[in-house]
## 1
Amino acid sequence: MQTPTTTDPRFLRAPPRRGIALSWRDPTVRAVFWQVVILGLVGLGIWWLVDNTMRNLEVRKIATGFGFLEREAGLPIGESLIPYSPADTYFRALTVGVLNTLRVAIIGAVLATILGTVIGIARLSRNWLVAKCAAVYVEVLRDLPLLLQLLFWYALLQGLPGPRQALNPFGSVYLSNRGIKFPWIEWQEAHTAALIALVVGAIVTWGLSRLFTARQMATGVRPRLWPWAIVLLVGLPLGVWWAMGAPFTVDRPVLRGFNFRGGGTITPEFAALLFGLVLYTAAFIAEIVRAGILAVHQGQWEAAAALGLSRGQQLRLVILPQALRVIIPPMTSQYLNITKNSSLAVAIGYQDIVSIANTTINQTGQAIEGIAIIMMVYLTISLSISLFMNWYNARIALKER
Amino acid sequence: MTPPSAEAATLGAAPAIERRPPSFALGPIAWLRANLFSSWLSTAVTLLLAYFLVSWTLSFLNWAVVNAIWDVPGTGQQVDTSACRAARGEGACWALIGEKYRFILFGLYPFDEQWRPALVVVIFVALYVISAMRRFWRKELALIWLAALTAIGVLMWGGVFGLPYVEQERWGGLVITLILATFGIAFAFPLSILVALGRRQTSMPAVKALCVVYIELIRGVPLISLLFMASVMFPLFLPEGMNIDKLLRAQIAIILFAAAYLAEVVRGGLQAIPKGQYEAADALGLTYWQKTGLIILPQALKISIPPLVNTFIGMFKDTSLVLIIGIYDLLNTAKTSIIEPAWQGFGVEAYLFVAAIYFVFCFAMSKYSQDLERELDKGRRR
């Protein structure tokens, strides 16, 4: 019974087909057929919607196109990073909106990362009270809608007394329903120069740090960095500022009539939005950080302890660098979330891109263009964050041999 | 420390090493030493935190209970809230909740008919509880959902069985939040499965591209932009004379939004299924839909249940965004309840009230998801 019968499918090929035989049994034919059907249906649906829209626009005599961007906006904006007046164009107004969105998103992302990391580590603390407090924080903040939290903080800030009875926790800092007022130095060229010096110092320090690491790799001895760091990060900016005459005048907020004059201001809208976003996102980041640290093998802690590192050093030098690999991908989506969630600003009157585009839609009636602008802005920001985080992720990823 | 040689010499007749009595190694005092006062830094942190916790709790209790105003004279337009205004900052004004809770929970639904939305809320909660129990996870559950949703529609609209008709514009409060969330899940979930399957079709590049564009486009923009689209752009999309009311438009936007996020979760589950399962199904000669429905999806969905529940929680919270386009959900009724001059400035109380409601729903879901994850994990680990 050793007859070699070939039932192996590899040897049972169908004879090569001649010509084109369209058969329903051919998976390729079916795939092409269904794709044509599905694409056709979707295309038909889109064509129907576009056709309806064109007809409706014509009936309602709504202009199309982005020509309105050149027209005068006439909408007042409370806070702006670039000079702006209602006489400027819609384009400039929308630019102000984009900058306001970026401002709250960037500051929010930085603060939420710091707070979230602290709380995530606190939740793993050996101190029972600290761990429980962090756990309660995460559970409560995560389970309440962000919009509710924003409205709550805004209501709380609005409930503060007026400027005349402003709370004065310390120094010249005033809390009132008009926002937070604090003293601020009068900005001059010397300050800008000092800031540039600080940036240069930071870059040189970073370069030195890399150089020293290279020397440590070669010789085993790491030169001390901190004296250089102090000179470069503190000495250099101070020296530049001193050389330019050391101007220093503090602009203190003073009550004049019904409101404060001078000083720096954080508006209640911005404060409520930033506060809400940071506290809410920090709860999610805390969970990500905690999961990342737990994902590092227990043996790593023990090995680090065996080397004589303190618990802080174990965390900083051994655990966190490894945890980062687990942390970065979900962190990316949190940064995307904080950017998208900043659009809730419209509910409390902070003028971000959504708020200004919404006003634009109401004033011009050009809903399609307005919403297209909102979507384009967010898609661009989302894509940029994704690209940056992917690059960073690739950089810190485990270098396999 | 004694050198080993000395130790060895005195071995045998050595006095017993002084050990702490066991009461310090076990029991509450040992627990305190280990978990609260293990080092001077830990002790300092514990004391500082305890001080803040106690002082904050005391001042909160002072505000929320001791100095709170529970009742004010008059109702409706003639209400006299001067007692609340006087206690502003020192005591909470719970009289607002006593006066407005019917509005916050049920919106402008006719006062005498408000037992209907109340019953609807009960049906919703019962539906959630039944769906959460594993012994009900079978095909009949779909029928239960269908029956419950029909009953909800009948109760809310009325017009039959002697129930007076209530137009949809008057619905509001908790019911709207539950409707948006539940119908959102009920429709987004099947859609998300289709999209997730479509995204994995390597043999149909056009379908795959369509699904990828849909998912990435929706996930790249905030929900608000979709709600704006639903509220101002949607009427332009439809032929003249055809009109869809605002709640339905918002519901469609929420479904489209949620489906994109759910699809990514389902895709994660699909990716976790080993290739052998697909090949085994093919070897049995199953068609694509048999393979997907009988072999792949039951396993993939089981893996993705915990993240699915987390997405549901997110959706439940996100329904509050309809406030921005002027739909009276739970959050918007709370916001509106303090618009009357008499009640202006008592937002904190109103928001705390609805926060408690949101928290109960979301916390229950998140605890459920954690328990389920543990239970499913147990089965897998064996």
Note: Chain B has one domain: 100-381.
## 2
Amino acid sequence: MTDLLNKHSFVELGARQRAKALLDEGSFRELIDPFQRVMSPWLSRQGVVPQADDGVVIAKGAIAGLPVVIAAIEGNFQGGSLGEVGGAKIAGALELAAEDNRNGIPTCAVLLLETGGVRLQEANLGLAAIADIHAAIVDLRQYQPVIGVVAGSVGCFGGMSIAAGLCSYLLVTREARLGLNGPQVIEQEAGLEEYDSRDRPFIWSLTGGEQRFASGLADRYVADDVAQIQQQVTELLQQGLPTIQRSRQAEHYLQRLAVLDAEPQIDPATVRDLYQGERS
Amino acid sequence: MRGLQWFNALSAGATPVSGLPNSLKVADGVLGDQPVRFIAVVTDPHNRFPRARNGEVGLLEGWGLAKAVDEVIEAGDKRPLIAIVDVPSQAYGRREEALGIHQALAAAADSYARARLAGHPVIALLVGKAMSGAFLAHGYQANRLIALRDPGVMVHAMGKASAARVTLRSIEELEALAASVPPMAYDIDSFASLGLLWETLTVSQIEQPTTDDLARVSDCLVQAIKDVQAGGVDLSGRLGAANRAASAHVRQLLREQW
């Protein structure tokens, strides 16, 4: 009970509150805020009500005094899906952060990822924006860390799971899920036997935050608590660039996959053993 | 099979690169008068991962693409990379999710992006499907995108059946919407209207390129390489179309308020 009272859930916060919670007191400044009403030009003609910030909050500020830009996706709007405007907000912010660094300002980035990936009502413009986001992460990451946070409850899927894989560091909670394909889509494409999208324990056992951390596919596993997440993000920012970027270990992962017996269907323990060996 | 046909045609006489998964075709050859590396993802009926046997980009393909591109970056010669794109989808399966296919695809996107930033002209030639995560991993990080003009050449975020299910529409409703909303359409002309392509080309036999087709495409690739060498390493060339005006507008506002 004491534990419950002392904790402040991060997962329950909206995108804007999450960004505020991570930034140093009083340093939050939102760019293209909702009052500017820069909305999706594609949704209303399809009978979907657009949102004033298109479900993405871009905020500049500081964490432990370090210059930071935060891009926070609002999981409650259209499942956190990325359309043209929201996608351009994230890509554009990361591009400017990289430009800052080329001009001697060490801006780093934190991405709060609650997203199903491409917004299908804006399909190809969402996909193009996500390619831009990938490009911008790889560019900025040359100078400063880009930290991905998947807290839950939406999780991080589609092209944005690739963005998560490009981050310098990735932080997850127990509520988080991280995977390329949403469970429904896998079931649709591959059948119920391959992937039962309604079996929640099964989905979490394969793609949940705890499993991703135990398999070495995430860097930090944190409780759903504002203070702890804030502290971990701060530590990672202060740590600077990682010595080895996870997405640059092709030889290692090809070698691991080569020794896997791919014939039987897979279980979570096999993944942990394969990728982490004795460390798991 | 288009990807394989175009790979074979473009890389005739080139040296195959070994040490990669069988689902990747990689060769070092010449285009115009300069050395290039050709890369394609092809079908492999014996793929150890059953959900990646039809040309899908899966675990081995993602990490393998990264390796094929990294080798070129490490050589440090700014050699152009030609990605021949005919990818029906990413691999959908339990093994793939469990083993982190997102990370494998991130590795491929990472390598292509780093190659581009390091000054290697990266050109993607779309000869078939360029779908979703598969395209993000193989092609979408290119400096220049070139598409052949054909009903079978298609860029999209999700196949029609799944897109209909996820958006709670019938396939007929989805098709009707796609006809009036350019980013939702499945045809290459609608895609071209978004300003993401550098060039579209018509060929006479897309399934089995003629000598003439090959000459036209090779020439276009050479021009694209020159265009990159004269320009920058970023993707700004993709902004500017009326159907992508919001993408440019948002960037302008961010810059003003930064």
Note: The radius of gyration of chain B is 18 Å.
